Amino acid sequence: MSKTREEINQTEKDYWNEGKLQRSKIKKLRRHAFFYSYKREKKILNKLLEDFNDKNVLEIGSYVWAAWFNENIKPKSLSCINISEVELENGKKNAATKPFPVKHHIMDANNLTFEDETFDIVFGGAILHHLDIEKSIGHIHRVLKPGGKIVFLEPLNMNPLYRIYRKMNPQERTPDEHALVSSDFKIIRQKFSFNHYFFDFFSVVFGFISLKIFGDKNYDNWINKLGYNLDVFFSKIPFFHSLFARVIIYGSKK
Ligand SMILES: C[S@@+](CC[C@H](N)C(=O)[O-])C[C@H]1O[C@@H](n2cnc3c(N)ncnc32)[C@H](O)[C@@H]1O
Description:
Elements: H1 5-18, H2 27-33, H3 35-49, E1 56-60, H4 65-68, E2 77-82, H5 85-95, E3 102-106, E4 119-125, H6 133-143, E5 144-155, H7 160-168, H8 182-191, E6 192-199, H9 202-214, H10 222-234, E7 246-253
Parallel strand pairs: 1-2, 1-4, 2-3, 4-5
Antiparallel strand pairs: 5-7, 6-7
Helix pairs in contact: 2-9, 6-8, 9-10
Bound molecules: S-adenosylmethionine.
Residues 9, 12, 16, 60-61, 64, 81-84, 87, 108-110, 124-127, 130-131 line the site of S-adenosylmethionine.
């Protein structure tokens, strides 16, 4: 029998409150595979986040904002929601010294309790894939003002290699999360016009080879740079999008 949303939410809460995920195995590969692509991600996000200045902004599954916002990003207000008390509390520590108001709420992103048309922008990092896409996208659409914007960075589950890896390493994920597939994009497209940037296919394959050849900390090398450059090139061709591991989705309310 499939789990109810309440049961899924409780599992998510427990996992994040109790820090149950084990991700140390993948750390070394990440250092190689993502050395260049994190720089690209940062550059793209910095550009997209310029829109956040003087806007009423909501982060769901908070708190990636503390890592994403540089000192030039000053929203009019930032509201942060999370289902986990511990995750929200970590964000509060970062908010104390910020030159803009930050409010925190324990809330289910599948059932936002804000008034209609409250926010100019809703964003999040690695959160949509923990949610019921239809419900959460409906609520995000509802709480956004006309023309309101979205920015999300999410993992993808379309490449068979990543699917196999995920199946073999369940300890790295919460049990009910589902990295996005094309049917999720269709649901988002019903309510939002959006575009994307895809990340991390060749950089993972080349990162693996680089780790084997150069060893743990020697990630600034030509193999990783080549993998990264192939990613940038092939990510521009829609036919190859399903190879990639992560995506930035940015767009606006229909
Ligand atoms: C992969 S973590 C991402 C955290 C943060 N956004 C980041 O990028 O570091 C997923 C987050 O989603 C939160 N979460 C899971 N289900 C949720 C729900 N239904 N409503 C709100 N937050 C939820 C978890 O507590 C956790 O903080």
